[in-house]
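Subject: Sanity check before I submit

Could someone independently write out the structure tokens for this chain? I want to compare against mine line by line before I put it in a report. The sequence has 196 residues.
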Amino acid sequence: MSKHPIRLAVIVGSTRAGRLGPTISRWFIEQARDHGDLEIDVIDLAEAELPADLGGRLADGSYASPEVGAYAARIAAAEAFVVITPEYNRGYPAALKLAIDSVYTEWKAKPVAFVSHGGQSGGLRAVEQLRQVFAELHTVTIRDGVCFPMARDRFDADGRLHDVEGPGIAAKLLLSELLWWAEALRRARAEQPYGF
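---
Independent answer below. Compare away.
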């Protein structure tokens, strides 16, 4: 591992009232802090205030919206991502699609992992759709993830996970793979900028 910590952005993908994303995010961040030397930036889309009309990039490379500009800077600074997504109607949330599409080059040549939650599928259908979207953005998606089927039954009223062993093992594997790719892609970008 490098002497410099990996800058990890954890994106909380739901903005709905009563959402479970912040609870799962808190659990995941605990796992990440125990795993390695990371600088963690939590990007909660409920607080990002991304406008529905993004306005696009201006001729000078800046963004038309200051909210999108601030968000783009956080995505650009990150070296790896964990997307925490629910599954809504067999897909991922519209707010998450808006956030992904708000920027483009900032995603390139970086690894993305997924922590999903939902009903019986645990959000895996949303993840499979997200893999296709992130492929278009020139990212590397991590094979292993964490999924919480029947997620509301898995956490108590204080946000503590009932069964910590299985998800904890899955989180360690996800983080090991993610950090390997983050280090490898950091070196590659330093040696030769990704210009595709």
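---
OP: Matches mine. For the report I'm noting this point. The longest helix spans residues 165-191.
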